[in-house]
């Protein structure tokens, strides 16, 4: 899921950074993205 998003919209590095930000915003628990 994350791989498809990174390939379509942005580079894996940016996707990982954005994912990290979302996890931080949710208090360390990923809601939308589940690895």
Task: Please give a structural write-up.
- This protein is mainly α and 35 residues long.
- Helices cover 60% and strands 0% of the residues.
- The chain is built from 2 helices and no strands.
- The protein has helices at residues 2-8, 12-25.
- The N and C termini lie close together (8 Å).
- The relative contact order is 0.18.
- The model has no long low-confidence stretch (mean pLDDT 60).
Q: What is the string of SSEs from the N terminus onward?
A: HH
Q: Indicate the low-confidence ranges by residue numbers.
A: none
Helix/sheet category:
mainly alpha
Helix content: 55-70%
Strand content: under 5%
**Count of extended strands:** 0
Q: Main beta sheet: strand number and arrangement?
A: none
| Gyration radius, in Å | 9 Å
Number of helical segments with 4 or more residues: 2
> How far do the termini sit from each other?
8 Å
Report the principal-axis shape.
Answer: elongated
Mean pLDDT level: 60
Task: Describe the secondary structure blueprint for this structure.
Elements: H1 2-8, H2 12-25
In a nutshell, what does this entry contain?
This protein is mostly helical and 35 residues long. The chain has helices at residues 2-8, 12-25.
Features:
2 helices; 60% helix; elongated
């Amino acid at each position: 899921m994350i791989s498809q998003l990174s390939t379509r919209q942005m580079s894996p590095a940016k996707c990982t950074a954005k994912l990290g930000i979302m996890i931080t915003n949710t208090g360390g628990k990923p809601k939308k993205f589940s690895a």
